[in-house]
User: What shape does this take?
Amino acid sequence: MRILGIETSCDETGIAIYDDGEGDLPKGIVAHRLYSQIAVHADYGGVVPELASRDHVRKTIPLIKEVLKEANLTPADLDGVAYTAGPGLVGALLVGCSIGRSLAYGWGLPAVPVHHMEGHLLAPMLEENVPEFPFVALLVSGGHTMLVRVDGIGRYELLGESVDDAAGEAFDKTAKLLGLDYPGGPALSKMAEQGTKGRFKLPRPMTDRPGLNFSFSGLKTAAGTVIRKEIALQKAQGNEGMDEQTHADVAYAFQEAVVDTLAIKCRRALQQCQLKRLVIAGGVSANTSLREKLAEITKKLGGEVFYPRPEFCTDNGAMIAYAGLQRLKAGTDADLSFKATPRWPLDTLSAV
Assistant: This one.
């Protein structure tokens, strides 16, 4: 079976075709395209929902045509159409939902609405080294930070989540305080590579109490306090502001605090669930420091960490196609209506 996947939950338009290897094509991603709207939103310092929706309208159909051409397939060669139905920006979701459902109807194919975070959670399944169930998953991105026990597709137990800012959101906001351009998270991580360990010390929020929830708004505030103090100190000395090394040192301290916090909670979750396999996914899972730290803690526990390649850490159509195919095999076929669900708890999904 092969399926078309459409991702339009935020500011990236992702299209892909995935084949399960039971037909005339080898198993895996047949073709994929990803268009990022970074240039569209850069002047605003963040995603503008209306502009995101309009750009999805312009890009989705052309990208679908490109993917079909690259794969040398026609709609008649497909077995279904999957599209992100939530969570995300409601306008952006509606674009993907309406296009996906309409194409499925026009082509006479099943329509499969997909949960965006289930797509991220299953993204490591696109790799050669596939984790076996059960495992603990850390889903960490600009909009979500959560720990989930995964016993199978659709068999999810929420262990903990952020009570305020997601980790990726805190990265972006702190980057903005440092004067970095949008998107700030990757820029902050790159700047941190030049930072000095130990110059600044920032808190590891909610690690001194039991439980697996996260909180990153206070960490962002603490980083802002350090930045303001350093700027005031430099101005008192007759300088215009912080030098490059101080910027890098603050970035290092912030990233170290986020990574340590995530690692402490992951270790706690693995021990609580008595599991040794850890999956990390979502945009922040591409962070090199985070990967190294989680590899270190899982090794100490006698386990292993799994993650998708960097291009599939951010939003993409391949993860939606893969998740959609699992749902299609389980009999999912939406009726002619379609619904965008901007808020959609992961643990409400049905088991496959």
